[in-house]
Give the backbone structure.
Amino acid sequence: MEKLPKQNKMGAMPIGRLMFNMSLPMVISMLVQALYNAVDSVFVARIDTAIGANGVNNALTAVGLAYPIQFLMVAFAVGTAVGMNSLMSRRLGERRFEEANSAASNGLFLELLSALLFLVLGLTVVKPFLAIFTDDEQVLSLGVTYLRICMVAGAGIFLHMGFDRILQSMGKTTLSMAAQLAGAITNIVLDPILIFGLLGFPKLGVAGAAIATVLGQWVSMVIALLLTVCGDHEIKVSFRGFKPSGESIKEIYRVGAPSIVMQGIGSIMNTGMNFVLSRFLTDGMGVSVMNVYYKTQSLIFMPMFGITNASMSIIAYNYGAKNYRRLMSAWKRTVVICVIVMTLGMTLFQIFPKQIVSLFDKKGTMSAAGIKAFRTISLHFPIAAVCIACGTLFQATGKGFYSMIVSLLRQLFALLPAAAILALLTHDLDCVWWSFLIAEGVSLAVSLICLSRLRRNELAAIKN
């Protein structure tokens, strides 16, 4: 008789200890991930040859204009991986192991196709895209150099996300952390070496920052691959005789496609905000301030995403196993922890904005605008915590469409119109930042409506 795999800890371990054990490695790894993104901009902000006539660092502005496309790459990588994770965790909870294996193989296949798509786009659309936002030749040149390298050599981020979520779906978050830490450390070490030409390396400027980024992604990918295929795991990845499974791909994208759209909306939002800040407000300060904000706010949001990623695997597993009590216990703890984390983050941004902004502001030209931006935008953090925790529950139970709707309302139909109206009416950068709080209020209202529907229907059906 074939030996069945032992019981998964996500169905047996006490919820509090399980969440701590699973989320701690992911919080650490995602915090380091956010740290190296911020460190990347800190070093770029110190490229003296890129200071523009108005005192704004053109290299920092260029990286800020490139950020929406990098964000879109992550959206495709993470969204597909979220679909994989949800499907694999549900199948493991149902003890349908062959279907879990199929989800893993098909998910990796979809990640590779996404990488090829962005490689082609990196060779064709980078310059026309960046030219929408700036007429400054130096900003345009620096942005094209940085973004093209990140897109053409960006397969590492896609495949790493795939292997990473395979590990997470099995509860192997410590292994996931090891892969992410290795890539993050690689990036942090290589950034100053390649940007400023240390230890005998050529001085590459923003190209060095891009190369350090993709090398870090590839290191994470290779290590995650080795940790996935080596060892006795519940999920076995094999491409021997592989044929794409329409059923698995459909299930992956049933959750993954809304997640891609939801996170891709973030790219559209960044693009739209860059347009508002660069075209409606003409001093060039807004794009740099928003770039600094997004790189540093990730130090608050990424640990929370580590918690919600761990929670999603637990919730999805117990939804598949029809264990309502464990599912709701995990989700309620997620809400409480996320609110605490984001309230602490808001407090830091209220008390120490000057110290944070100064890390990216060698000439001191951005401090006043940055301080006001940080204090205003961070007011929405606790509200965002509740919305993100709701989105985690939606995705884990196969209702990624709800998350997509919430994000569409918040980032396209609330944030951008509010930002554009405030910019046109006031011509004041400080006023534009209030659009974030307006948008988050809309997001909360819709999240609570969707949550009520989910509890009345899908969750009521498994309540015992």
